[in-house]
What we know:
binds NADP nicotinamide-adenine-dinucleotide phosphate; alpha/beta; 11 helices; eight-stranded mixed sheet; single chain
Amino acid sequence: MSLYRNTVWFLKGLREYTKSGYEAAAKHFVAEDLEVDVTGKHYMITGANSGIGKAVATIIAKKGGSVHLVCRNHERAEEAKKEIIDGTGNQNVWVHLLDMSNPKQIWEFAEKFKTENKLNVLINNAGCMVNKRELTDDGLEKNFATNTLGTYILTKAMLPALEKEEDARVVNVSSGGMLVQKLNVSDLQCENGTFDGTMVYAQNKRQQVILTELWAKAHPKVHFSVMHPGWADTPAVRSSMPDFYEKMKNRLRTEDQGADTVVWLAISPAATQQPSGLFFQDRKPVSTHLPLASTRSSPADEEELLRNLEELSQKFAPATGTP
Ligand SMILES: NC(=O)c1ccc[n+]([C@@H]2O[C@H](COP(=O)([O-])OP(=O)(O)OC[C@H]3O[C@@H](n4cnc5c(N)ncnc54)[C@H](OP(=O)(O)O)[C@@H]3O)[C@@H](O)[C@H]2O)c1
């Protein structure tokens, strides 16, 4: 079954996820969708010092938005900030240092941020594919800690701030790779069996899609979406998937092309005309399952995912209590 899914997914990717896939889709884009002035609005973008995240931050800064770059490395973050300010003339660019695989740091960061800033849009873009099973200092598997638990805690912690604003949005940067995975709640930290980093990443990205659907139902004041950027030429692809990169490097999207749908979901009025909770590719909602693939999860498993994440997140929450 997994051979079937992987093959169908790869063939789909060759057609749709490459640069030519983007160019074909872009013929149907409405240019006016992005002709928006977002001055006065605040955008938080995780993993904003490179790749898709930096491209998103730059485009939003060009449109007048205040951008909060949430990054783990001080030097890389400051370099990105300077580049964005120099390239856009927008001075409203801030760096916040945060390791998204550290749950306690995320709670503390979010509590402090809320006392100092408002937030209109949260873009959960930071992501990783660690190919060996490695643990964080808290004993969490690194891919899960960054991609799933980090996204869960930051979103949960920022929701009260988002719910105060009109037209608040959360955009989760997932991956089409999730199409090959069915939700597996029995082994969130990959303690059993052979560790396959690509599949662990795909499972995390499936979890992000399910979280987006659940949050959309539970929080109607905020518009949630999740998306696939296509295959874009970024540091992550070069370092985590060297064989794929070698094979595909001439066909990969640019970082701006990978960023396009994130920006569209974050700022365009057209995006919020779509229902909350959907999965997007090239500005359109698309299916979260491949044809004939048995990847649909049960409501019970989805509830269990939420319960497990909530339990785990509360272990690291500040003693004063969190929402
Ligand atoms: N490029 C693609 O083809 C593709 C396809 C599907 C999905 N995506 C998704 O797109 C998103 C952006 O990736 P990208 O391709 O643009 O790669 P990238 O340029 O390497 O960006 C990933 C960003 O996430 C940050 N990050 C990773 N772990 C972190 C942590 N623990 N704490 C804080 N920041 C962390 C990285 O910071 P450092 O610089 O410090 O490492 C970097 O800024 C990811 O979620 C990825 O899964 C990309």
